Amino acid sequence: MFVRWQSLDVATDTPPLPGFEEVARARHFDAPEALDVTFYEIRARSLLNRLPERSRMPFRWTINPYRGCAHACVYCFARPSHRYLDLDPGRDFERRIVVKVNAPELARAELARATWRREHVALGTNTDPYQWAESRYRLMPGIWQALRDAATPASVLTKSPLLLRDLPLLRELASGPGFEAGLSIPTIDERAWRETEPHTPHPRARLEAVAELVRNGIPTTVLVAPLMPGVNDRPEQVERILEAAREAGATQVSGIALHLRGEVRELFMSWLRERRPQLVPLYERLYARGAYLPKQERARLQQLVRYEPGSPRTASNSPVSISRSISRSIASRESAGSSPVSTRRWMSRSRQRRNLRISST
Question: 23-305, superfamily in CATH?
Fold first, then answer.
């Protein structure tokens, strides 16, 4: 069988992935970034995920080739999705990564169906498709090729400049059915970055990726999210990002306030007590009534992210309108007190298991 990756150390004594009836193939990589990470290779039964009709997102379809994320962002809203696998949303989410090794083949097959209507497909809505694992498994080129060949518009949100590896394919998508990139850059403050997202590429590298994408004609958004009171919300901190984004030529900058739901709230507060104990009373007060900041505080944070690009693109059917709609959708959900998008939260654990065919070799 053709293998996309090299330099593997195959673990033979790793127990089966909890929550599955069959044994997944578990691998370790002999690389500093992944020495304590286990990658569970599975053969998924389906890849395209349809969002519920009640979703306010401006797209209906998503693709997530990985589950779990080695970026280890303390605020990540996707952490509870690991519970569906009977895995911990804390350490397991960061160190036990599920890899859908047949994702490119599935994408091509599902997008080739006669019933496919070429609707927008979003990637990076749950976990980062360009996290470290992608440098070894190389699933994304095949997915982009399938989207291109199916004349399907797409977008991606990532924290990694690794997406530049696939720049030729992204250019083809942008000049064809349509493509937009989003780089998540919550801060360029060195301390805040290292503490809140310890295994992500440097924010400056992400800004360089923004500039390169724009130079290649790809509409690119900088997402300043989440904005965390007392951590990355000082006006001078945000202004530095706006200036850097403007210099890079970002088409748009959007900001989203931190939301803390369920287990993410527990994990974040634990981190806060350890790293920023002086902020604990503030957060207990701000989030006393639920997962979202009070309306007045959200409005304050939104005012910080006021961006005027050098050459704005305002066409209503341009890819940029997707990012603008996403930001507005999230804001409206916050106002209504509803939850953020999670592409798996409506699916029962038993159904998820049925949807995945595990490789037992």
Answer: Aldolase class I (3.20.20.70)
